[in-house]
Design goal:
single chain, mainly beta, 0% helix
Length: 342
């Protein structure tokens, strides 16, 4: 997690014609001075104007800040340092405004999971509340038990001490700012995503190699292995309908450690997602295991799913954001193209 002094966005241009592989982007400087070590980033409509704003936390300095889209005027949520690897935006207290769930630290430097209440005015103070003093690497939010309140799933990582990425932590919000915690064992590793993989209108949890089926109450989770061919456990991950069959496929990139080698792959969802033999399709082989973010989307608007991934600047290979275009119906895309420094 090296120091970054400039925050930037890479924004897609207008639509391009179907079949065109090249993707071009505009480079937009959001903050020329920026936060120091901006580890965690998120997007959410924090001012209710129907456009996504940018949320960034500085680990060394700069605090937790949201940048108003499209002017990119900064607004401070918290001015203390120590914001860590992940943040999420959602209406935690059901007042109609997007709040921020964050991984931060307290005044003594202890890591914690917390949330900040949106005051509804850019210059007003955001009230903060600690959910638990705990070290986590990834968090996701969703209504996991169907009661109308936002819940949280969290996980730490294997690659760094205390190497406890073997537990999913579920925080069910039983009423405004009251949380019940449940611990679900899982294979050690890194990476977490919430989505409805089996299309039963209940959010499931996805990690490397396994997904956890939501039984409905948010406390019971059925582990489902989807692959035994992909052995790397520290990953960034996403899911999307890659081959056009209306099922959610899975894409994984290796996220730790520096200097390692593994592959980026996507896994084709079968008609029965509880099967353990989802077909693996290699996107890029023998990449450095520092591809710390992964997003599946149609970036060039040609009707085919693309992948964007970013390397950590601590890697041995050049830090970059790159896009792989044209994955569709199992057809291998051309070699990926780098589009900017990470």
């Amino acid at each position: 997690m090296a120091v970054l002094s400039i925050l930037f966005l890479i924004i897609c241009p207008p639509p391009v014609s179907r079949g065109q592989i090249a993707v071009s982007f505009d480079h937009v400087v959001v903050d020329p001075s920026g936060l120091r070590d901006p580890w965690g980033k998120a997007v959410g409509d924090l001012n209710g104007d129907s456009t996504p704003d940018l949320i960034v936390g500085g680990y060394v300095s700069g605090g937790l800040v949201w940048y108003e889209n499209p002017s990119w005027v900064p607004h401070v949520i918290s001015d203390r340092p120590g914001f860590r690897t992940d943040h999420e935006a959602g209406d935690v207290d059901r007042d109609g405004r997007m709040d921020v769930v964050s991984l931060g630290t307290d005044a003594s430097g202890k890591p914690r999971l917390e949330w900040f209440k949106n005051p509804g005015s850019p210059g007003a103070t955001w009230a903060e509340a600690t959910i638990e003093e705990v070290s986590l690497h990834d968090i996701e939010i969703a209504d996991l038990n169907g009661d109308g309140w936002i819940d949280i799933a969290g996980r730490n990582q294997e690659a760094f001490a205390p190497s406890d990425g073997d537990t999913l932590r579920i925080y069910l919000q039983t009423s405004a700012s009251r949380w019940s915690k449940y611990l679900i064992p899982c294979a050690n590793g890194e990476g977490l995503k919430i989505l409805d993989l089996n299309r039963d209108a209940r959010p499931d949890i996805l990690i490397s190699g396994f997904w956890f089926e939501n039984a409905g109450d948010g406390t019971t989770w059925i582990p489902r292995q989807y692959t035994s061919t992909y052995a790397h456990r520290s990953v960034a991950l996403d899911a999307a309908d890659i081959n056009g069959d209306s099922r959610l496929d899975i894409v994984l990139s290796p996220s730790e450690p520096v200097g390692g080698k593994y592959r980026i792959s996507w896994f084709e969802a079968p008609a029965d997602p509880t099967r353990s033999d989802w077909a693996e399709h290699i996107v890029e082989d023998s990449v450095e295991t520092v591809h710390h973010s992964m997003c599946a989307a149609d970036f060039n608007l040609d009707g085919r799913m693309d992948f964007a991934t970013a390397k950590m600047s601590s890697g041995l290979t050049p830090a970059e954001v790159k896009v792989v275009s044209g994955m569709f119906h199992g057809v291998q895309a051309p070699a990926p193209t780098a589009y900017g420094s990470a």
